[in-house]
Predict the structure of Aminotransferase class I/classII large domain-containing protein.
Amino acid sequence: TLNRIYKLMSHHQNASLLSKLAFGDKHGEASPYFDGWKAYDKNPYHPTHNPQGVIQMGLAENQLCSDLIKDWIKENPHASICTAEGIDSFSDIAVFQDYHGLKLFTQVIAAFMERARGGRARFEAERVVMSGGATGANETLMFCLADPGDAFLVPTPYYAAFDRDLRWRTGIRIVPVECNSSNNFQITKQALDSTYLTAQETGIPIKGLILANPSNPLGTTVHRETLETIVNFINDKQIHLVCDEIYAATVFTEPGFISVAEIIQEMDHVNRDLIHIVYSLSKDMGLPGFRVGVVYSYNDAVVSCARKMSSFGLVSSQTQSFLAAMLSDQRFVDNFLVEVSKRVAKRHRIFTGGLKEIGISCLRSNAGLFVLMDLRPMLRDQTFESEMALWLVIIDKVKINVSPGSSFHCSEPGWFRVCFANMDEDTLQTGLERIKDFVVGDEAYKKCKCICNNKKENKRRKNFQKNLKLSFSSMIYDEHVRSPKLMSPHSPLLRI
């Protein structure tokens, strides 16, 4: 009782002593998207040390090509100032660098952005502004483009942490543009016009549109005609367009990726001051820990303001120096971009093929490090309450961290984002086996030649599936089931 009284007193004291930002709950972590992280943090899977742990399939991380980077490092020890071969550059790099970043680094970043887009668009090094990952880049643009209370249109489903990245400290608002599965969740002119008009009628000032291309969580690229429609739309309304293109090179099949930079090069009478691009090396290069984000704006005033703001999230000069050396190696970069596409394609094929064998389909995708898995047939009814109940079973019983579509503001219940590139192939197969256990049981395993011949193992599988079904049945009929209010210590720093 005394502890409860003390906590209440402390709560009220903090409310008066701290800022609204520090004491508020608008960070966005009270979401199943981050709750799954907490479940994994508490009980992480390991093939030998903790084989019954939670498998992390909620992290959109590219670990498929790290061997290529390691090999390059071994062959180029001079690239690091922390080696005997590179120590002579230590004094030059360790001292203060201005907000523009190292000149060579901005040059190779511009060149890399061109190669990642097939050389079809040109980028100027002078417009490259550094930031602490794409998270920082997106927030920087919000500070530059809008005031608290202003709003941005965002097609659904959209990246779950946009609610944090775009809104938490800036005070801007997000107005969802509802898309649905009937056309693969592609944005339409009708949806844009309708949402914009409604916002105008309700007094919400729309400052721009934010588009993730390729999409997270859809894993799809935006068609050329749709991009042209969007550019015409924002040009007509004289509002900004922010294109988050962090998966530009993580495209593995047709249709390919088309950057907004390519589109505006081909279109006449476009106000380029309204066009801005966010990029990073986190996904395409698999370097999220390096925290390299990029603001690329065609608006001179935005470039100037963003550069001043970059003082709050500069990329380490050591990181810039190392990456400048690596990205200057055109042979390495060209081989890396080809190889990453091949490896992501293979992993996508393995995972979706395994799901297809047990009757689970996914949204047709061609990019990204994840798929949108369709579990609508498994819902008791087509409600988000049923989706949440199913998700809790997947986390607690199947022990896989996946992200429910509702955390991405999906308009239809039953879709789940599953990541497949942040683990080795054995762990991926273990994840698939757990899903198969849950969905179909022993008979399907026999058909798929995945069943163990050991009778004891067969009995264990049957009991496992029976327990899962019982757990699921008891949970989906509980109308009060809600996601536990958990917070992962990792999530504020990761663009998951």
